[in-house]
Write a structure and sequence with these properties.
- Pfam families: ABC_tran, BCA_ABC_TP_C.
- This is ATP-binding cassette domain-containing protein.
- Keywords: Amino-acid transport, ATP-binding, Nucleotide-binding, Transport.
- InterPro entries: AAA+_ATPase, ABC_transporter-like_ATP-bd, ABC_transporter-like_CS, BCA_ABC_TP_C, BCAA_Transport_ATP-bd_LivF, P-loop_NTPase.
- One of its GO terms (biological process) is L-amino acid transport.
- The protein is α/β, with parallel strands linked by helices.
- It folds into 4 domains: 214 residues, Rossmann fold (3-Layer(aba) Sandwich); 77 residues, no CATH class; 158 residues, 3-Layer(aba) Sandwich (Rossmann fold); 63 residues, no CATH class.
- Helices cover 36% and strands 22% of the residues.
- It has a 6-stranded mixed sheet with strand order 6-7-8-3-9-10, with helices on both faces. The chain has a 6-stranded mixed sheet with strand order 16-17-18-13-19-20, with helices on both faces. A 4-stranded antiparallel sheet has the order 2-1-4-5, covered by helices on one side.
- Helix 1 runs parallel beside helix 9, helix 4 packs parallel to helix 7 and helix 14 runs parallel beside helix 17.
- The longest helix is centred in the first third of the chain and has 19 residues.
- The relative contact order is 0.11.
């Protein structure tokens, strides 16, 4: 039993789950009423005739495979997109045509799927931004900022008040300081020593904590959480779960999108299941997790095996799935395409990698495993030339890459699929693919290669003229793969390619990674937190802990090694 599953059991003992779907918020007022919501992108129906309600104090979760319309629904509620038709009624106010700022001022807060913080601002400053809309004495002219001619004079007036504050403004600023301190304390010790650090320098998990804290600090009437634990390991996920359970016990109303089913089952009063833009099921967790339509949509039928009826979808994270078959092992005599030798890397005075040595043979998938902030992404950035080692070497195809620019490393055959995909959201799918071929001369070969990507990823062909920012997370991941292929790589470095994806789509991504090796002969360095997933397709693996390689071996050997789990828990010697 995982830590998350134990929390589910403990929570179920403390709170009797309702068994009648008609009990859905029956005694509480409606906070959010969604009526026949519709949204299309370039002819693709992302959300189709969707209706649901959220009552005060409820936690309602939207689940479903990637591309089902979950994030699009949250984006419309928060004002990022306007619906094509339908109504969004929040506490009696229609939000359909409101600006994002107006929706935020009305009491709706949100987090984003890939995490968004102000990287060049400190943790404290990021949290204070969450209270900006609540300020009165320091922002007496804020209502004028919707009018172009009054906007700048009002901002100059606010600047003057904050540079030379009067008694009321000082009192308000002191209150903000206390609230920020309390919010920092709510995350235990994780942010206490980081309050003055610029958030770009934080670990991924601490960036997510900062974003969640910024959303929560103003006590919103509705908190929308779009995959709040994406990219977090088991311990970090458990900490966020405990935080949200506390918020729930205090009567907060939340709308949650999340793929971790233990997490969803522990938090939710009501679950809505979407597929292909439409709601296919809804109800209390006990009903939804055993619905055959949900199991088929979310897990892909028998692809991972049918969950037991008494466990249902809650068993996704522990399903006894058959591993993806390995191909024949790479010959021990195959030459190294990549060989990092005794590498030390620093961020200013702070050392991030200590004597790191790892290698990838031609035609191999090698997994680099470890928890958050242990040095995995730093390793990838060093290979790509974005960081320079103080000591040690990066050897590619027998050549030392010291002094070789990132552009020339790409020209030599090294490509990347970065964390959170990093596609160009305001460019079409086709334009994103063409950007991956910028190092090549334009011609028929490039057109042919775009067609080959569309054959490999048919969903991208369907959306070739659609803006990439409107794709689902899974579709964006496929686009990132395709863009990398357009540079004709020999080695691809992939950073967390399964992050934030549904179980069914995780299988598709892993199959796609495996096919790049088996069908195209591309070598792959796969950076991943989920060790079982990465090792299911890898030939070899390395485990990082606190900037040092603590374990290495064949994928099969590491999959059976208890030391891998200990490394994730910080206990490996």
């Amino acid at each position: 039993m995982t830590a998350e599953t134990q929390i589910v059991a403990d929570y179920a003992q403390r709170h009797d789950e309702p068994h009648d779907e008609h009990e859905h918020g029956a005694d509480s007022p409606v906070v959010l009423d969604i009526k026949k919501l519709d949204k299309s992108f370039s002819g693709v129906h992302a959300v189709n005739n969707t209706s649901f309600t959220i009552h005060q104090g409820e936690v309602v979760s939207i689940i479903g495979p990637n591309g089902s319309g979950k994030s699009t629904t949250i984006n419309m509620i928060s004002g990022l997109f306007n619906p094509d038709s339908g109504e969004i009624v929040f506490e009696g106010k229609h939000l359909e045509r409101m600006k994002q700022r107006e929706i935020s001022d009305a009491g709706v807060a949100r987090t984003f799927q890939n995490g968004r913080v102000f990287g060049t601002m400190s943790v404290n400053d990021n949290l204070e931004m969450g209270l900006h809309k609540k300020m009165e004495s320091g922002r007496p002219f804020k209502q004028l900022q919707d009018y172009p001619f009054a906007k700048w004079p009002s901002l100059v007036g606010e600047l003057g008040l904050n540079l030379m504050p009067g008694p009321k403004t000082r009192k308000e600023m002191n209150a903000v300081t206390r609230q920020v301190s309390n919010q920092v304390q709510s995350f235990g010790d994780h942010l206490v020593d980081m309050v003055d650090h610029l958030t770009y320098s934080l670990s991924y998990a601490n960036k997510r904590r900062t974003e969640i804290g910024r959303s929560m600090i103003a006590s919103p009437h509705l908190l929308c959480l779009d995959e709040p634990t994406a990219g977090m390991n088991q311990n970090e996920t458990e900490e966020v779960m405990q935080l949200l359970l506390k918020l729930k016990s205090e009567g907060n109303t939340m709308l949650l999108v999340e793929h971790k089913m233990d997490f969803v089952m522990a938090l939710s009063d009501w679950i809505i299941v979407m597929d292909n833009g439409a709601i296919i099921s809804e109800g209390v967790p006990s009903k939804v997790r055993n619905d055959p339509k949900v199991i088929n949509a979310y897990l892909g039928g028998d692809k991972r095996g049918q969950p037991q009826t008494d466990e249902g979808i809650a068993a996704v994270n522990e399903a006894d799935a058959e591993p993806i078959p390995h191909r024949m092992p790479i010959s021990a005599d195959a030459p190294y395409i990549l060989d990092m030798q005794h590498t030390d890397v620093y961020y200013g005075p702070v050392q991030a990698l200590y004597d790191v040595s790892l290698n990838v043979r031609e035609g191999q998938i090698v997994s680099l495993l470890g928890g958050n902030a242990v040095g995995k992404s730093t390793t990838m950035r060093t290979i790509l030339g974005l960081l320079s080692p103080k000591d040690g070497k990066v050897i590619y195809e027998g050549k030392d890459l010291r002094g070789v620019s990132t552009e020339n490393r790409v020209r030599s055959g090294i490509a990347s699929v970065p964390e959170a995909r990093r596609i160009f959201p305001e460019m079409t799918v086709t334009e994103n693919l063409l950007s991956g071929a910028y190092i090549r001369k334009r011609g028929k070969d490039i057109v042919s290669d775009v067609d080959d990507v569309f054959v490999r990823f048919p969903r991208l062909k369907e959306r070739r003229n659609q803006m990439a920012g409107t794709l689902s997370g899974g579709e964006q991941q496929m686009l990132a793969f395709g863009r990398a292929l357009m540079s004709k790589p020999k080695l691809i470095c992939m950073d967390e390619p399964t992050m934030g994806l549904s179980p069914k789509l995780v299988d598709e991504v892993l199959a796609a990674v495996k096919s790049l090796r088996d069908e195209l002969g591309i070598s792959i360095l796969l950076i991943e937190q989920q060790a079982d997933l990465a090792l299911s397709i890898a030939d070899y693996g390395f485990v990082l802990l606190n900037g040092k390689i603590v374990l290495e071996g064949s994928a099969r050997h590491l999959a059976a090694d208890s030391g891998v789990q200990e490394a994730y828990l910080g206990k490996a010697q």
